[in-house]
Amino acid sequence: MKDEGSGNQLGSYLRARRELVSPAQSGLPPGGNRRVPGLRREEVALLAGISPDYYLRLERGRDKNPSPRVLESLARVLQLDDVERTYLLGLATARPRAPRRRRPEHVPARVHELLAHLQIPAFVEGRAFDVLASNVMAVALSPRLRPGQNRLRSLLLDPEERAFHQDWTKATADFVAALRTTIGDDTDNVRFVELVGELALSSQRFRTLWARHDVRTLDGGTTTVHHPVAGELRLHRDKLPIDDVILVVYYPDKDSDSDEKLRILASLAHTEPARTAHDRTAHSQRPKTP
């Protein structure tokens, strides 16, 4: 996380966001000889009602204490939504702090019991999209939902995961933006540094999205996936916080085509472990060749 580690998160975010706003979107003439893809610094300053010199100091990290009024003006000029505006305000109010010692992410025993009882795909993820626990139906939906996998790594690097999502482009953009939101000012977190570093080296798609500094939440929603056995499934997603982890559940509309397909998938998923256990028992009972 090079830009985060530099101590100038606010400046990096402002620069990335102004490059995404065109002059036309701001009511300005496009101009004939522009060296930047979006707004110039002086244009942002003009539209926000601040001096170009002061805005330059903000981008370069020379002034890290802008007033709420200035931040609100910048959010308006950069056309930030509520999530992005909150993120901007958070960057400006962040203060230097000692590195935080985080407890290992732990799945409570009662959540393991809950997973075993749920008849829909369900799993537990950590802050960095690590899969910490999952039920049979989650693994039947996608083998990439086994404990020990990382959802973002699978999404970006696994060809099967790319084929699994109907809109892989949107999924990757959503996940990367959600990761940046989760990280916030917690840039010294070892797990975040490790994951971002790995993906920055191995995925051009990640590098492109990370440079945009998009932020958003990834909570409830509806997605369409292509299962290799069940076919197309339209599923709703909900995320439920439990202690320090997140329970994620996927479920279809009742009595829908996806509901029927998921029931068939459940039948196959619960039959396979029993068959595997039977095969192991039968094999152990075979007479051994002298």
Descriptive labels:
elongated; 290 residues; disordered C terminus; alpha+beta
Specify the structural class: alpha+beta
**Uncertain spans, ≥5 residues at pLDDT below 50?**
274-290
The termini sit apart by: 61 Å
- How much helical structure, as a percent, in the residues? 40-55%
Gross morphology is: elongated
Portion in strands:
5-15%
Estimated radius of gyration: 24 Å
Rounded mean pLDDT is 87
The spatial strand order of the largest sheet comes to 2-1-5-4-3
Number of strands: 5
Order of helices and strands: HHHHHHHEEHHHHHHEEEH
Largest sheet: 5 strands, antiparallel
Q: What is the count of helical runs?
A: 14
Provide a concise account of the structure shown.
The chain is an alpha+beta fold and 290 residues long. The protein contains 14 helices and five strands.
Describe the structure.
A 5-stranded antiparallel beta sheet has the order 2-1-5-4-3. Strand 1 (122-125) and strand 2 form a beta hairpin. 51% of the residues lie in helices and 12% in strands. It is of the alpha+beta class. The protein is elongated. Helix 3 packs across helix 5 and helix 5 packs antiparallel against helix 6.
Layout of strands and helices, then pairs:
Elements: H1 2-5, H2 9-18, H3 41-48, H4 52-59, H5 68-77, H6 82-93, H7 109-117, E1 122-125, E2 131-134, H8 136-141, H9 151-157, H10 159-164, H11 168-183, H12 190-202, H13 204-212, E3 221-227, E4 231-242, E5 245-251, H14 257-285
Antiparallel strand pairs: 1-2, 1-5, 3-4, 4-5
Helix pairs in contact: 3-4, 3-5, 5-6, 11-13, 12-13
